[in-house]
Amino acid sequence: MLHQTANAAPAEVRTQRGAHLRPYALPAAVLVTCGVLAASLFIGVYDVVGGERGAEMFAITRIPRTIALVLAGCALAVSGLVMQMLTQNRFVDATTAGTTEWASLGLLVTVLVAPAAGLTARMIVASLAAFVGTLVFLAVLRRIAVRTTLVVPLVGIMLGAVVSAFTTFLAASTNSLQMLGTWFMGSFTSVVRGRYEVLWVVAIVTLLVFLAADRFTVAGLGRDVATSVGMRYELVVFTGTALVAVAAGVTTVVVGFLPFIGLVVPNVVSMIRGDDLRSNLPWVCLGGVLLVTVCDIIGRTVRMPFEIPVSMVLGIVGSAVFIALLVRRRG
Amino acid sequence: MPRSRTRLVAAGAFAALTLALAGCAGAASEADPIEDTPAAGTVTIEDNHGEVEVPIDPARVVALDNHVFETLAAWDIPLVAAPKPIMGSTWPQYTDDETVLDAGSHFEPQLESIIAAQPDLIIGGYRFAESYDAIVEQNPDAVVIEIAPREGEDQSAELIRQVEILGQIFDREAEAAELVADFEGAIADAADAYDGESSVTTLLTSGGEISYLAPVTGRSLGVLYPNVGLVPGIDQAADDTSHGDDISVEAIAAANPDWLIVMDRDGALAAPEGYVAAAELIEGSAALANVTAVAEGQVVYVDPNFYLTEDIQSYTALYEQLAEAFGA
Predict the structure, then answer these.
(1) Measured between CB atoms, does A168 come within 8 Å of chain B?
(2) How far apart are CA A38 and CA A132, in angstroms?
(3) Which residues of B touch A178 (CB under 8 A)?
(4) Are A190 and B239 a contacting pair at CB < 8 A?
(5) Cα–Cα distance, A110 to A131 (Å, whole number)
(6) Where are the beta strands (DSSP E) in A94-145?
(7) Do A190 and B210 count as a contact with CB atoms less than 8 A apart?
(8) How many Å from the N-terminal Cα to the C-terminal Cα in chain A?
């Protein structure tokens, strides 16, 4: 059975089961994540322990890359969760709502119009485009009478496809098609000291989501409920959209497309733990970090000394999990 | 689909207009002594598909293969159509001339402009190889040849073969022989200047990313290894021979090559300048600062137009560049 509303009974039951383990669960998960992050720090082509300039290389590439993985993983998983609350639909995230497609259109336009614009300008325009795009998505949703579980992401995917077709056309007619492919291929290969720092912006996004968690939960109950308990629903939706747009815009500019994180992680967490957004948030963060980091480690080890973009690994892992998720829910 | 209909109408109108223009040109050429005296007869050449009989010094030539533009330009051969979007700004005599019809790019070929150009000879192939059958079918009155370097053959021999065929067709055999001599001389000079043991790694940069071009099979630069006898700094077979494999700065640092030869793919395309130039990417990288090649200034940046040309002249220039760098 596919649930449209957030708090369904079976989830409650699942939460109760294994409750006695609960005090240890989070610290254990944190430990596992730390272990994976440590592995990320020490896995790579250069011998950072015995190598002549090992320590230097460690500081130049490994630490920045691992920090970037943490930031991007957290932000994308959390923004997926926020979007699912705002649209009251479990299958919506930045990639199924067209948000990332808008961000990349913004990025391409910036580069074409103002080639000299720096990273900051590109991020601002990409985030603005993502914001506008997500508002368009929400506005279209409001005008649609049938809002079943599958229609909502379908609308998003369709809107995204239209935007991405336009982006491709623009790139093809300006001879930048191949460059477009390189840019948006989500990959941490080029993340080194000096080329990732802007990602810290998404740490702020994650923090703000933590602070506003309760509001998003109430908004997730729908406009009527939210309004009747005295919440300014529109403001919360607006804020949530803006946060998601910034996360999508910044990661698209710095890393590229990272599919499935926002979709898979929040869903797995709420399947296991139920739907309390505030207590789920740390889990969603950890899950996002784990998924991205593990996929990135796979990407950099299977073809050493070359790398496979993390987006490709995520695509494979993510789609497998997603299908498993759909099948399980149905059964 | 209204869009395709519009395009069809536009193409039709365009073709009609061009026919009219071509008619005028034909009438004018009656009085033009140069056009009126084509070199006698035909020559039989061996192209990538077999033996073809080609008219000597044909009047109306369409060239689609990037390898031939430099030679044709040097010999003042006029073209009636060319793939302008993938020619950069290197051959303004073709790209800026409105009477030269635009055959589009390999992503979006405009084969109808080739028909409209009423060519006697079409030099196809390379990026346009996929359109070969369509071009042959649509242009029954033209001779279509493909003389681009063939996969799996020795690439230098292929470049020589190509320019020699052009020499035969355009009756410039002495000039072709000169180009070949320059080319062979440059290879020999580069091999002489190379010390025979310094390790070399070839890279491709695009959109701020670095990728690895494998010895022998890697695009454009792979052939340098066997021809000059270079010792590879990283010796791995490539998965992606044309656009290179994703490689981290760490892997380059770990290999610590003595020389880097870098091709900047985006540098060739005239349009957006929103890319990080190769030099900034390589020399600006803290991780690469202590690699011998960077520390000792032994980084060779290939001419940005190389990605578009890859012709015998570009290789001659590249080998000369290497000879000079290695000899310094």
Answers:
(1) no
(2) 38
(3) 206, 243, 265
(4) no
(5) 16
(6) none
(7) yes
(8) 7
SS (H, E, C) chain B: CHHHHHHHHHHHHHHHHHHHHHHHHHHHHHCCHHHHCCCCCEEEEEECCEEEEEECCCCCEEECCHHHHHHHHHCCCCCCEECHHHCCCCCHHHHCCCCCEECECCCCECHHHHHHCCCCEEEECHHHHHHHHHHHHHCCCCEEEECCCCCCCCHHHHHHHHHHHHHHHCCCHHHHHHHHHHHHHHHHHHHHHCCCCCEEEEEEEECCEEEEECCCCCCCCCCHHHHHCCEECCCCCCCCCCCCEEECHHHHHHHCCCEEEEEECHHHCCCCCCCCCHHHHHHCCHHHCCCHHHHCCCEEECCCCHHHHCCHHHHHHHHHHHHHHHHC
Amino acid identity of residue A330, one-letter, is R
Low-confidence ranges of chain B (pLDDT < 70): 1-40, 241, 267-276
The vertex-B22 CA angle with B18 and B27, nearest 5°, equals: 150
Q: What single-letter DSSP state applies at residue A88? A: T
Q: Which residue of A has its CA nearest to B288?
A: A57
- Least confident range from A55-59, A80-84, A98-102, A245-249: namely A55-59
Helix and strand totals (H; E) in chain A: 15, 0
Which A residues in the span 80-139 are in contact with B, Cβ-Cβ below 8 Å?
Answer: 110-112, 115-116
Query: For residue range A8-60, what is the model confidence (pLDDT) as tens digits?
Result: 444 444 444 455 556 788 888 899 989 989 888 888 888 777 777 778 888 88
Indicate if the pLDDT at residue A1 is higher than 70: no
Cβ–Cβ contact A187 with B under 8 A: yes
What is the Cα–Cα distance from B184 to A101, expressed in whole angstroms?
A: 50
Burial class (CB in 10 A: 0-12, 13-18, 19+), B310: buried
- Residue pair A77/A265 in contact (Cβ under 8 Å)? The answer is yes
The end-to-end CA distance of chain B, in Å, is: 62
Spatial distance between the Cα atoms of A225 and A211, rounded to a whole number of angstroms: 21
The tokens describing B138, both together, are: 């649509």
Q: Which of B206, B239, B251 sits opposite A179 (nearest CB)?
A: B206
Q: Please report the sign of the dihedral spanned by the C-alpha atoms of residue B223, residue B225, residue B229, residue B235.
A: negative
Q: What is the pLDDT of residue A287?
A: 93
CA distance A98 to A193: 30
For residue A305, whether the previous peptide bond is cis, meaning omega lies within 30 degrees of 0, is yes
Chain B residue whose CA is closest to A108:
B274
Among chain A residues, CA nearest to B214? A306
Res. A329: pLDDT tops 70: no
Q: pTM for the whole thing?
A: 0.79
Other beta carbons within 10 angstroms of residue A301's beta carbon come to 14
A101 alpha-carbon distance from chain centroid: 13
Distance CA B54, CA B69 (A): 18
The mean per-residue pLDDT over the stretch A114-127 comes to 81
Helix (H, G, I), strand (E, B) or coil at A143: coil
Whether A179 sits inside 8 A of B266 (CB atoms) is yes
Question: Which amino acid, residue A218?
Answer: V
Q: Which residues of A touch B251 (CB under 8 A)?
A: 45-46, 304-306
Amino acid at B145: I
Instruction: Give residue A291's Cα distance to chain centre.
Output: 11
Q: Distance between CA atoms of A299 and A44, rounded to whole angstroms?
A: 11
Residue-wise pLDDT tens digits, A163-208: 999 999 888 887 777 778 777 888 888 888 877 888 898 999 999 9
Chain A residues close to B236, C-beta within 8 Å: 305-306
A102 near A132, Cβ under 8 Å?
Answer: yes
